[in-house]
Each structure stands twice: as C-alpha cells, then as structure tokens.
Specification:
The protein is of the alpha+beta class and about 700 residues long. It has 4 domains: about 180 residues, no CATH class; about 140 residues, Chitinase A, domain 3 (Roll), CATH 3.10.50; about 100 residues, Roll (Chitinase A, domain 3), CATH 3.10.50; about 210 residues, Chitinase A, domain 3, CATH 3.10.50.40. Helices cover about 45% and strands about 20% of the residues. It is built from 24 helices and 21 strands. A hairpin with a 2-residue loop joins β1 and β2.
C-alpha cells in the first residue's frame, strides 16, 4: 500500500482515545466518584504511590462484565474472558490515575461556565450527543435537552452528567496541550514526498558475513554477555512470572464411551427413518440444533465419514446412513435429495518452503522438488515422500492428505492447480505464499445432499471421568509424600513443563485456569497443587520456578540469544571496516570490490519505487531502500546493514515518474503527516507515561 494511502487512512485523530481512559470508567452507571475514593479500603494496587482501592477496581470490572453479557448474552464467561476483562479493568483504573496526574501537571481545569457553553455549542460533549441527538433532524433535540435539565427529578443525575462533561472538556484541553507539541519539519515532508513518488536506479553489492570469515574467528565472552544484558536490562522487563511442572490425567472418551454413543444413535435409526417431522425429532435428539434440512457436500465430512455416506452404493432419498464417526461426533444422516452442486476436491501435497526474497533459498527449494519428482518417477509413493520431505506437519503425518475442500478454501494458486488437474494426476511445483507445493489430486465430487441428521458428541462417561479424577488424587497424595518426580515415575506419567507465564497470561500448554494461576502465584518453589479440574481431565502441578524481580533472568536460552546478537554485531563491525577500506582503495568501484571479495554478484535495478520495495532478481529489503532515500545520483553509500550481511549502494539516478506536481503534493502531504504524527504522539505519550509509572499490582488471582 502506498505511503500516502496508509497515512490518509489513519489521519483521523481518535479524540476519545484519551476519554476512554477516563470516561469508560463511568459509562456503566454514570456515577463514578471523581473526587477519589476515601481511604480505608483494601488496595488493589498503587500508581506512583496513589492508592487504587479494590472496590474501585471491582466496580469497573463488574461494569465490563455487565457490558459483555449485554453484548454477548449467549456467550460463556470463561476463565480466559474473565482474565481479559480483569486486565482491562486494571488498565482502566491505572490509566485513570495517570490521566489525573496529567491534569495536575498541566494545571487543567474547567469552570462551570465552560460546561454550559459546551452543552449549548454545535459540538456538544459525548454524553449529550449520545442521549439527545435526533437522527431525523441531524441535530441535538434542544427542547428535549432543556426539559431534562429543568426537571427537578433529574437534578442528581444532571450533577453527575455535568461531572462527566467536565472530565471530557479537561481531556480535550489536555489533548490540545499535547498536540501543540507536534511539529512537522520540511525535511520530514521531503522524505515522505520522496518515498511516495521517487523511483531509483541503482547498483549495489550485497556482501555476506562470510566475507570476514567463519563464526569461530569471533569470540563472545561471558563477560561481554553479562555487560550487554546489564546495559539492555530494560528490554527484559517483565511481570512476575512462574513456571510449573505438571501431569495431566486425561478424561477422554474410552472405546466403551464411544460405543455407548454409537449404540444410542443406532437405537434411534428406525424411528428417525419413519418420522414425518424431522425438525422436531432432530431438535429433540441432536446435540446440534441446526442439523435439519441442511445441504452438504463431501467437504462437510471427514474423509472416512464422507466415504461412508457418498461411497454408499444405495445413496438416494430416504437412505439412513450411520452412525458414522466424524471428528469427535457420531452422525446419523437421513438423505432427502441428491443433486448437483459446485465441485469439491481431495488432494495431497508436499510443501517445500523457502525464504521470501532469497533467490538462493528458492533455488535450493526447486532442487529439492526436482529430487522428489525423480523419486516419484522411480516408484516411491507420494505418501511416503510427503512424510519424509513435507514441511506441513499436519498433512505430512497423513501422507500429505488435505482431505476434501471446496473452491476458494485454499490460497488462489493452490486452488487453481487442484481444480484444473485431473483426478490421479500430479502437478507442480505450485508456488504460493507458503512455498513450493507438489500436488496430487485424489478425488473430485460435485454431488450435493439435502439431509437432516442427528449429531451426538462422543463424551467421556461419568465412570471415565471419575477414574481419571481418582488417579489424579492418588498421584497428588504420593507427590506430597514422596515428591513429584518419584510420583511421576511410580505412576508412569510424563511430567510436562509450562515454561514461564505471568499472572495475566494463559498458562502455556494448559490455557487460562484461574485455580492454577492462583496456586502458582501464592505458593513457593516445590509446592504441589491440589487436583485441578480441566476441560479434558485433571491436573496436578508443582511450582518449578518463580521470578519476582521484574526482569527476565539471564538463563541459558537468553545467553545463547545474546551471544548470537553480539556475534552478528562483531561480524558486522568487521565487515564495515573491510568494506570501508575497499571503498577507499578502489574509489567506490563496486566491480573491483566484488572481484576483490571473490567474485560476489553485483546487482543493478532501474526505476524501482520505494513504495514497491521489490528489487528484481533480489527481493524485498526495506533497509536497502531506506538507504537510497536522501542519496543524490552518483553518491556511494557506506555499508548498509542488510539480511545476513552488508551492502554498498551506488545511486545512478533518481526520477519522479509521471511528472507529479510536487508543490501540490507537499501542500497535501503536510497536513496528512501532521495528523498521523499527532495520532502517534498521543499513543506514544501515554504509553511512555505508563512505562515510567511506578505501578504496584497488589491484586490476588
């Protein structure tokens, strides 16, 4: 998307971005106490020493819950949603304190007369607009507004409304103060003008890090890693975190549970076949209420279930098929009609990805595809080769099988290849955003069935659930008595690691679970949890690690990451020195420098725009295009950091295709850029205030 288009789409300033930090706290009941809460209550936390009482936090949370239930009356308030709403409530009360501090910092206040003037203005406050706007006239209903203001019964409510208006006007004033700090320089306008309209013709020399030798020539010491960590410690700031080790006793349906569900549906088959009122029967018997008189293609079933139905030689109206197992359900299907519809296909593929913008990587991918094709021609099965080579792990485990799918279910290139290839034929390589695909079309079907069906989920029985719970309880007792590790061995259970998580995040590998999170953050290292109920079973955990320092620890993983950063930095510095010397010795002649480096390829391109980014024969490189902005024809750049090395660029020509009116463009760009900077400034300003605030979260989870 062109730069101007991106900016134009974002040029609006969200006035209520600031109001949300304050007004969202009161929209639920029109009645938050803006003068602050009196002391004495339990604290949810502090912001720069200012207390946030639990009842203030809970009031906001309750409002968010009420709002969620109004908007999604059928939705379940899961642990994950509850956690998200609690974090939103916490962010809102923290932002309230920060916003109040900004009012004090800039001495912002609103007089009573300003409130009256705002209410009577053509641009009234939000609360007035929301409640007194007349869509028929497109204006505020002043008669209705005046009646509401004068009615004695509304006096208390109106006091609260005036306080809401006062806060909105204070936010508007604060916004004006902050936005007055935003300026747009001529240089910024020229840079944006160039990025929007200029086209570059250039020659460059991409030099890989290998030009300065192998990694083994560059040492990174533990002392350097420690120093880098200390210098950049703020980059590793984090909330207090925990890590758990856990075992899960799954309560998944047994074969007996599955057969019981199947038997129930088998017992309904005759009655389903004979009923004249499918709608009532399905509504009464099916776990899904929308399975009456539906139209299905083969893509609406798993391959095995589809084979049982569409492969039935007696497929015709009146046929009862099933129950057939289909992804955790049994389906008993009654066919009403068979007709023609849009074709669906079944295909298998072998995916060989490559790095976008890397011709060398793409060349390797094509070489591997050619090798696979030779193995297919020699008689090796497609399924075996998919399991061996394909980088799509889901389908590779099934011999490359993708199942049945309809038109437009896949990316366009893949879709076209499948639906234009005969059944049984092989096509490819097909290039998509995911890489190169070898595709084998294994089926096509255009039959469309009108059906009603009874669907039953295969659930664990009460006996299965109780058996899993009992085993978990026995494990928990043994873990308390003999230790978690010994209990794991004794029960033959493989303990899993969650990795670190905060009180605000989900537990990796487990998901959101308030009971487990409360245990993790209220226990000591080595403590063993009670049995925790999960959707799919029962879990017992041990606190494996805790870190309340506020920073990520310099563990082995982080050390390796920093070592890689420092290694790249050292190699980059060495390559900079080498290229600077070669540039000086050879007067910027890239051909001579390329020869001195062992014949590295020099790349040239003509009339490539910054906004297009794609360099023919090379790929996309934002940093390379950035280097061209500001250069003049004939300039030779210093070494430019690019992927896997450095590049030296010579700008041969800069043009403005289409001869745009640059003066008109400057006049148009300046306000767009100013508005974009203002929007970004507001967001960045308050994020910086949040980052610098001393926030103490005293909530319990």
């Amino acid at each position: 998307m062109p730069v101007m288009t991106r900016l134009r789409n974002n040029m609006h300033i969200v006035l209520y971005a600031l109001l949300a930090a304050f007004l969202a706290l009161i929209v639920f009941e029109w009645g938050m106490n803006f003068s602050g809460f009196s002391g004495g209550g339990a604290l949810a936390g502090k912001v720069n020493g200012k207390p946030i009482e639990y009842r203030q936090y809970e009031q906001v949370y309750d409002g968010l819950v009420d709002n969620f239930r109004r908007q999604s009356p059928q939705a379940e308030l899961t642990d994950g949603i509850e956690r998200a709403l609690r974090e939103k409530a916490w962010e809102m009360v923290v932002d309230q304190v920060i916003l109040e501090e900004q009012f004090d910092k800039y001495a912002i206040s609103v007089a009573d007369g300003e409130i009256i003037a705002a209410v009577e203005s053509d641009n009234p406050p939000m609360v007035i607009f929301q409640n007194f706007f007349d869509p028929e006239t497109g204006a505020i209903d002043r008669d209705k507004l005046d009646q509401a203001r004068m009615d004695p019964e509304n006096s208390e409510v109106w006091i609260r409304i005036e306080e809401i208006i006062r806060r909105e006007l204070m936010v508007r004033k604060l916004q004006r103060v902050l936005l007055s700090m935003v300026k747009v320089s001529d240089r910024e306008v020229e840079e944006l003008l160039e990025r929007e309209f200029a086209a570059y013709s250039a020659t460059f020399l991409p030099v890989p890090f290998s030009a300065v030798g192998a990694d083994s020539l560059f040492s990174v010491t533990e002392k350097e890693i420690d120093a880098w960590y200390r210098e950049n410690r703020e980059d590793f700031r984090q909330d207090p975190v925990r890590s758990l080790e856990y075992v899960l006793f799954s309560a998944i349906p047994t074969d007996r549970d599955s057969m019981a569900v199947k038997a129930e549906l088998e017992g309904l088959a005759a009655e389903f076949a004979g009923t004249a009122d499918d709608s009532a029967f399905v509504s009464l018997q099916s776990d899904r209420a929308d399975t009456f008189n539906r139209r299905y293609s083969r893509a609406d079933f798993s391959p095995d279930a589809g084979d049982a139905l569409f492969g039935n030689s007696g497929l015709k109206p009146g046929l009862i098929t099933g129950p057939v197992a289909d992804d955790g359900f049994y389906r008993l299907v009654k066919v009403h009609a068979v007709s023609e519809g849009e074709p669906v296909a079944r295909a298998s593929h072998i995916l060989i990805p490559f790095q976008e913008g890397s011709p060398a990587d793409k060349r390797k991918a094509n070489e591997l595809v050619a090798k696979i094709m030779r193995e297919i021609r020699s008689g090796t099965s497609f399924a075996a080769l998919a399991g061996k080579y394909s980088k799509d792990p889901g389908s590779a485990a099934r011999g490359g099988d993708l199942g049945w799918f309809g038109r437009n279910a896949m990316v366009p290139e893949f879709d076209d290849a499948v639906f234009n290839t005969a059944v049984g034929a092989l096509t490819g390589p097909v290039e998509t955003e995911f890489g190169l695909h070898l595709v084998k079309v294994t089926g096509r079907d255009n039959r469309l069935l009108s059906c009603s069906e009874i669907v039953r989920e295969i659930r664990p029985s009460s006996a299965t659930i109780e058996n899993a719970r009992r085993k978990a309880a026995e494990f928990q007792m043994e873990a308390e008595e003999k230790g978690f590790d010994e209990a794991s061995v004794s029960f033959g259970m493989e303990a899993r690691q969650t990795g670190i998580f905060s009180a605000r995040s989900e537990v990796p590998g487990v998901g959101f679970n308030n009971v487990l999170t409360r245990f993790a953050f209220s226990s000591s290292e080595g403590d063993v949890s009670d049995v925790v109920n999960m959707e799919n079973g029962f879990l017992v955990a041990r606190v494996d690690e805790k870190n309340d320092s506020g920073y990520r620890e310099l563990d082995g993983v982080l050390q390796d990451s920093i070592r890689a950063v420092l290694l790249t930095k050292k190699k980059g510095e060495a390559l900079d020195r080498k290229l600077d010397a070669l540039l000086a010795e050879n007067n910027g002649d890239l051909g001579t420098i390329a020869s001195a480096l062992g014949g590295i390829r020099v790349v040239s391109f003509d009339a490539v725009r910054y906004r297009d980014m794609d360099i023919p024969g090379y790929g996309r490189d934002v940093r390379l295009m950035e280097a061209l902005t500001g250069m003049k024809p004939g300039d030779v750049s210093r070494p430019v950091p690019v992927e896997n090395g450095r590049a030296v660029v010579v700008l041969r020509d800069k043009s403005y295709p289409g001869s745009p009116d640059l003066d008109e463009a400057r006049d148009r760009i300046r306000p767009v850029l100013e508005n974009a900077k203002k929007e970004r400034f507001i967001q960045d300003y308050f994020q910086a205030e949040r980052n610098s605030a001393n926030i103490e979260d005293l909530r319990t989870f």
